[in-house]
Amino acid sequence: MSRESDKTISAALAAATCSLLGTAAATPVLAQEDGGWDFNTSILYYGEDEDRVQDLSIAVLARRTFFDDRFLTMGLTVDSLTGATPSGAIQQSQPQTFTRPSGNSAYTATANSLPLDDTFLDTRVALSANWQQPLGRLYQINVGLSASDEYDYLHLGANAKISRDFNQRNTTVSAGLAFASDTIDPVGGAPVPLTPMGNVGDLGNRLGEQDKDVVDVVLGISQVVTKNLLVQANYSFSDSSGYLNDPYKILSVVDGVTGDTVPRALVPGLAGPLHEYVFENRPDKRTKHSLFAQAKYYMNGKVLDASYRYMSDDWEIDSHTVDLRFRWPFDDSRYLEPHLRFYTQTEAEFYQVGVVDGLPIPAYASSDYRLGNFDALTAGLKYGWETRSGHDMSVRLELYQQRGSIPGDRLLGNQIGTVQYPDMDAIIAQFSYRF
């Protein structure tokens, strides 16, 4: 193998190593020169079918190279979200009316349709900053801050990571810690868990702002096995505490025999729901453990990237994720990258279609489809090229499909034979430009 080939493979593995560790590749400092700025920009569109959630996101990542392999990375992301999302209520053979989260008005879902909350409208602005530098000859540290703000949610976070090289820099061990403090201020106020949805203008069962804290710990090791093969393994621990409910999700109160939502008597002159619904409640703590493994294999210019993640938490959700990417260069300036991702998860122990009228309400209950049993498949293609000025550009198009199921013995009466888990298809399109 020629020396030039060795350099090419080494560069590919170096980039792969940084990708595995979640950092950008450090450009070698030549004669202690200042490396200047590097910008990575992107525009992303995500759209779900049937007029559900739509997201247009613009992101800018700026990286400043200083002397002695020191780097400052700053990020800005702006998201505009619109559309409708499932409220958690079951489908019915008759129209259903709901009070909006603000409590100012009501809306109606047609018969035999999935009840959607069409008030989903928000703009999110997120900022991040990270500083990376060597610490001695074999150590490297990375510290950062993050913040994001939207209409009803404020996030503040800090993170730190240290890594050490061994074995002639073929082995890297890292440890990271992150802390986030979030404030939730839902439209109309956070509802008291498991209380009934009231009439328009009735916000008597609402609370003030709610808080949530998240602590994440990541331990990792990466290993250059051969000139062509790089592998990594991570263990992650995450502990969330505080307000973990979705304040906009509800459950139908159903008849134990027919499975239909129980009718509700309206007060004359007041608008409101025609049936009984209660707001969800989740535990105020959640602990997650994750194992992640990834391998990148270089094959004469082509790179195969394969990873697997297993996650388990104390809500009884277990998930498996398999992700495959294959970068296929046409020449030195153009490439194609097919992508395939499969995800599957079991349902949370408190996930249920609705609560049965007349029976004691459980301490925790949610019909949020994201906590149910489902499979998801993402398939797509990315095309990248280098411009005449030496800048990198790429376009990506992917299709996302999610399919869930509820065991037949969990359904009551008329619920059997109806669609109670909302399947979903979405499209993802992205344009990126690096200069």
Main beta sheet: strand number and arrangement?
16 strands, antiparallel, barrel
Helicity level, as a percent range?
under 10%
Order of helices and strands: HEEEEEEEEEEEEEEEEEEEEEEEEE
CATH class: Mainly Beta
Whole-number tally of structural domains? 1
CATH architecture: Beta Barrel
Question: Low-confidence spans: pLDDT under 50, at least 5 residues?
Answer: 1-32
Kindly name the structural category. Answer: mainly beta
How confident overall, as mean pLDDT?
90
Count of beta strands? 25
> Per the principal axes of the C-alpha atoms, what is the gross shape?
elongated
Tell me the name of the CATH homologous superfamily.
monomeric porin ompg
CATH third-level topology: Porin
Task: Write up this protein.
The structure is a single chain. By secondary structure, this protein is mainly beta. It has one domain: monomeric porin ompg (Porin). Helices cover 4% and strands 54% of the residues. A hairpin with a 3-residue loop joins β8 and β9.
